[in-house]
Amino acid sequence: MAKNRKNQAAAIRFGSVIKVVLLCSLFCGSAIGFVWQKSEIHRLDQLQRRCEIRLDQLRNDNKRLSDQIGILHSPVMLDQRAKELNLGLAPAQPMQMVRLEEAALPAKDKNVSRQFTQRSMTGLTP
């Protein structure tokens, strides 16, 4: 019987060693995963900050450029620019203007469009 006890004790020791190794590898794997997630969160946070800063810069540029376009489209600025380029542009004289009178349009009747639709639909049927 002494022989069996020796073999049994070695098997128990070997099993417990395997359990300890598996538990240690589980804890180490969890720790490595935790550190990787923390570094990934830090990296993504920095990326988000850079994108927000870039977005603010683009908004400021957009506002500045739209203000500049508004200034350049003003009649005073257009007149000044035309004088700088010697384009020979000047306001139209009253003799150069042609005024067109607009003919009065007949009031639209709601039934007219309905009648037209009914006529066109009846014309399509064989």
What are the SSEs and their pairings?
Blueprint: H1 2-72, H2 75-84, H3 110-124
Structure explained in plain terms:
The chain has 126 residues and is mostly helical. The protein is 76% helix and 0% strand. It contains three helices and no strands. The chain has helices at residues 2-72, 75-84, 110-124. The longest helix is centred in the first third of the chain and has 71 residues, at 2-72. 0% of the residues are buried. The mean pLDDT is 82.
Order of helices and strands: HHH
Kindly state the percentage of residues in helix.
Answer: over 70%
The shape, in one word, is: rod-shaped
Distance between the termini: 109 Å
Biggest beta sheet summary: none
Which residues sit in consecutive blocks of at least 5 with pLDDT less than 50?
Answer: none
| Proportion of residues in extended strands | under 5%
β-strand number: 0
Class from secondary-structure proportions: mainly alpha
